[in-house]
Amino acid sequence: MATETTTDRRTSAASADAAARANGQAPLLDVRNLKTYFFTEDGVMPAVDGVTFSLRRGGTLGILGESGCGKSVTSLSIMRLVPQPPGRIVGGEVIFEGEDLLRKKESEMRRIRGKEIAMIFQEPMTSLNPVFTVGNQIMEAIMLHQRVSKAEARRQAIEMLRLVGIPSPERRVDDYPHQMSGGMRQRVMIAMALSCNPKLLIADEPTTALDVTIQAQILDLMRDLQRRLGTAVMLITHNMGVIAELVEHVVVMYAGKIVESADVRSIFAMPRHPYTVGLLESVPKLHETRQRLKAIEGVVPSPYNMPKGCRFHPRCELAREICKQLEPPMMQVGPTQRVACWQYTNFEPVEMPAPGEAVPLWKAAAPGAGTAGGPATATRGGQGV
In this structure, is residue 36 part of a structural domain? Predict the structure, then answer.
């Protein structure tokens, strides 16, 4: 019997993607088994290790997790902005508009960045150039991608500043970043990112270091602009309130891997993974009175010394022996909910595969087994929106 090659699988997947796009069903962004490692003198650091998710056109995806879980590196990998050296994307695919961004030349990526995919970086004061006016920095992106005159670019920059709610944009367009407040600088970053009407906006901690009033204004602004412009948004944050306010689907990351994926209602109503439960329990609630909030014991493991098996097991109160030996597969535990945790399957370990073999280390639970959310089924797929 003929063996399917990697090329055959890619050709088949490309044909399926083309058919889905023709029917208007293909996601805008489809990240498949993405792996980004950093090669340093201390060893190899798997910052992103097999991440899979998708984002529909006009949709909103939230990536949630503690600092050091791989959220920002995931976004930089999508944009092909991982510093080389020491970083390198060692595997996977980033399918955008049906094309793999990881196979494109750097010159092609420069045309995509800013025009098709834009990014709001974590700290606007360090992302904006202090020696140029905010207007010049917005105009640069417009002239680069739209090929318009300087006068037209200035007019569009003023309109973008007005769109994001900056008062007197005709005057503020000539201000330098240090002349603006943190909230204003964040609005400038949003204006710059949206100046070329991108199809995908990646927002990395867009409300960092802002007070709660300004945070609410920025979130309202992003929601309004998304509705008006139809831009898909990928929001990276560790703030559960921001997730609840803005996104449709949530991906929870821990130590470079996705541990849970679900629609936002399911995440808050019935979190499945112990890590997700811990994140939610660490947030104060208005209807509860507690002497002390619950904390997740321990810290995120060193990327140079990841624990064997489930990477969360050293901090997990429910860890069993299997958790310390084998990495859990992604289990379907609800209509839109998937979780990588051994407590959601009846497993039977099998022999370890030979190098290069794609043999699963588990057997799926029998029909009817699993949780109240439905039968637990072992899957190879990722997390879709």
Answer: no
Neighbours of 116 (CB within 10 A): 18
Q: Which amino acid is at 115?
A: K
8-state DSSP, 5: P
User: Using CA atoms, how far apart are residues 10 and 267, in angstroms rounded to an integer?
Assistant: 33
Read off the pLDDT of each residue in 158-164 and give the average, rounded to a whole number.
88
Instruction: Quickly state the pLDDT bin for 124 (edges 50, 70, 90).
Output: low
Given a contact cutoff of 8 angstroms between Cβ atoms, the answer to whether 104 and 95 are in contact is no
Total of domains in the chain: 2
pLDDT of 93 strictly over 90: yes
- Tokens 């792996």 locate to 35
Report the candidate in 227, 204, 232 with the shortest Cα–Cα distance to residue 28.
Answer: 232
**Sequence-separated (6 or more) residues with CB below 8 Å from residue 81:** 113
Of 162, 180, 197, the position where a domain reaches its end is 197
| For residues 217-223, average pLDDT | 80
Q: Which pTM was predicted?
A: 0.78
Q: What's the Cα-to-Cα distance from 45 to each of 37, 41, 49, 305, rounded to whole Å?
A: 5, 10, 10, 8
114 in a domain, yes or no?
A: no
